[in-house]
Please model this.
Amino acid sequence: MKALVVGGSGGIGLAVIKQLLHLKPHSQIHATYFRHQPDYHPPQLHWHQIDITVETDIAKLAAQLIQLDIVINAVGMLHTAEHLPEKSIQHFDVDFFQTNIQTNTLPTLLLAKHFMLPLKASRRSYFVTVSAKVGSIEDNKLGGWISYRSSKAALNMAIKTISIEWRTKLPHCCVLAFHPGTTASSLSKPFQRNVALHKLFTPEYTAQCLLNLLATLTPQNTGKFLSYDGSTIPW
Model:
């Protein structure tokens, strides 16, 4: 098996890498990081330093990888050092909104554009992006977090649209948006105190849920928005 984990230096991304190598020790894994390469170097793992928001970086990486069975995008942001998610529209900030779009939405579009051919070379492939339930328009009952919600809603629309296009171009590929639940990572850290302990998942548990889910899916399941427990989330 050949896989690419984008955002491999993050909590979920690194856990996915380790789970993949545990389940399939003979796999060839490629993983990306932005600033700091994790101190994890099994022989089956190849690290690539890229800026996931820069198209030329993604295109260069895609040119190196001729065939892939799995692409998982685990990149995401919820807050910055200067901004937390908005509680009100009065807190809306243009730069923060654009950063959300650039980080949460744009990379999946670029990955789909440039990794279609490597995925096409596989007999069965998976294109997965870590999304969030708060990106569901139908499920939005509380409001708030408008930049994050909007970026994830746009991401979900991108995933759905890609899945429709690829039904004819990549009929063997399952395209999926995945909700990981609240995972103990730097993304959720400012909000973990508000989460019940049994609902705060370790990255290892989240990675296990994702890979267990993929093991049950076929190309006929493409275009779905699924939670960590396998349930379907409305768009």
In short: The domain at 2-227 is CATH 3.40.50.720 (Rossmann fold). The mean pLDDT is 94. Residues 20 and 84 are 33 Å apart (CA to CA). The two ends are 31 Å apart (CA to CA).
